[in-house]
Amino acid sequence: MSDVARQAHRVLMASFHGLELPGWLAGRLEQGLGSVCLFGTNLSGSDAQATELTGQIQQSSTDGCLVTLDEEGGDVTRLDARRGGSTAGHAVLGAVDDVALTRAVGQDIGKRLREIGIGLNLGPVADVNCEPDNPVIGVRSFGATPELVGRHAVAYTNGLHAAGVAACVKHFPGHGATVEDSHLSMPRLDIELETARLRELAPFATAVAAGVPAVMTSHVVLAAVDAANPATTSSAVLGILRDELGFDGVIVTDALDMAGVAGPYGGPGRAAVAALAAGADLLCIGPERAPGEMESVLSWIVDDVLAAVSDGRLAPERLAEAARRVDALVAAVRSGDLPTGPTPGDGGNATSGSVDGTGPVADASLEAARRALHVRGQSQIPDLKNALLLEFHVTPGIAAGEVPWTLPLEVAVKRSLSPADDVVAVLAQVPERPVVALVRDAHRHAWVADRLEQIARARPDLITVETGWPVVDAEGRPTGVPGAVAVWTYGGSSVSLRAAAERLGTAQVRAQGTGAGDSR
Q: Residue ranges of region Disordered (predicted)?
């Protein structure tokens, strides 16, 4: 195999369907494939199965491989995709704003990843979620201000690195101010460059200064810099990351089969060439194609990259540079040479690890989930064993996918609601019971907001649990959810839902000031 052919494989992060490594992918690993990204469909929920799979990948690799996972924590989990996330999500950690606790959660996640053979985690999320209607970031973000996001991104990174897993902050130059999902279209940031520097770019600058080894791009147009191309394929935007922020690590693309970049380029092959030419180093190929097409897609991309080098569209020096960066990251992960500098604002130490047998990361995450809860309303909560629990199921975002989502509360009746359901009729069937409504981003789904108002009019004693991104008032307090009692969890992972159930299962809501977010 020629050096150029090896390099063309080295810069690719492939994916596949199923619980076992397919032969075609093992063959590509023998040719130097740089990375394999696992998704929930590759994992049975057993750490033993995951460990065996990552071992197969490494055994097939000639030059060493970055086995990668998208384990942000909270709503976005691959390890717990079949049972619901056992870790605190970013918005939970931002709401608590204890960087030592964030570092502990990051380290706990990293320990579990390292134990099963994962070397690179596609997290943390460094997007500033300043747009409440954002359909793709939301509770995946630490918060709505760049300072908060920056310090927690570093804390989470330090935790991963302490466990021996490399971090990849995302989605440069920022996806938090958009109202479109780049899985489905190509969003635009129509803001001044200086605004972007102060808001979107600031957390990435903080993470780069702390030594993060990888940064993932977004398929978002930063119009003030390049009005035609998404960041993934824009040399001008990636030039800001390299030249202005001083980043010399691996630039990883978001999945090239997403519509935000595959659409404009007519497919992932041409998008791959454009991304490499713009300065990206490791090209992510997601699992969006049918199982029978995955091998062909990878072959097309390799062929397109080789053709681009041959006909002059891609400089061989650029391809070689990208491959060298991937090699360096593989070596750093193997040796454990990952920076763990000081965390901004860290005034103490947090403990980590499970102490109650509920999972490998239950301790720090459950503490965070409990502290993040914001409760508004009456001080007395009725006995809910006789209650009606209404769960409003909306289509999940593509990034999170279908993950179990339920409130583990002992109730008499549980109903799952859809837009076609008549909530007045449902209430009439159980007129004497307390009512608890479980929702996610009610403000983004008109039918959910409408049904909640109907329930609140019929049952003023309604208890609402909001698991999505909160709408806040002028003082930064969550608002906009009806009910005599409202609980905001800042995420829908199983650990956050457990914390909410614990709170509702007690007779007395803690008074204002005793929790991270209680109000009357």
A: 335-358
